[in-house]
Amino acid sequence: MSRTTRILLSLNLVAALSGCAVAQKVPVSTDPSGAVVYLDGNKVCEATPCSVEMLNDKSHLLTIVKDGYRQKDIQVRPVQNSGGGKALSPDIVTVRLRTPDQPDISDKDSAVGTAIELGTEVLQRVLKDSGLGSGSGK
Which pTM was predicted? Predict the structure, then answer.
């Protein structure tokens, strides 16, 4: 290992242990692949899979976009690692992209919205079948 490489590794280790911001690469993959990735609003990857480099001293927003699929936003936050330094979490991002007609049950807002839509449809059908729905004249 060259002297320059040893010095750089030592500086990174000191920075990590002292709590200073250090760049961390976070692998990003999607199913299907080929999505564009934005970091805090700036395009950083033309097509997944890729790695996104970000500082580990603050929270970041990864936005994943692919034509014909729903946008997916992932919050990446700094956490204390076992050595006392900071690391980003999640440290690996793997996302299954959904088409607009596919419910995303891992997204609480989407799951609740889907349940409300289904419940409303069922209620309208019951009211219509019982003659109490709108347009029945009762």
Answer: 0.63
Give one DSSP letter per residue of 8-30, joined into a string.
HHHHHHHHHHHT---EEEEEEEE
Residue with tokens 């019951």: 126
Q: Flag whether pLDDT at 77 surpasses 90.
A: yes
Q: Which of 56, 59, 62 lies closest to 94, judged by CA?
A: 62
* Phi, psi angle pair for 115, to nearest 5°: -65, -40
**Residues in Cβ contact with 64 at an 8 Å cutoff, skipping those fewer than 6 apart:** 28, 30, 35, 36, 37, 38, 48, 71, 72, 73, 74, 95, 97
Q: Does pLDDT of 13 surpass 70?
A: no
Rounded Cα gap, residues 86 and 95, in angstroms: 24
* Single-letter code of the amino acid located at 110: S
Separation CA 55–CA 75 (nearest Å) = 14
DSSP, collapsed to helix, strand or coil, labels residue 112 as helix
Angle at 40 between CA 17 and CA 38, to 5 degrees: 110
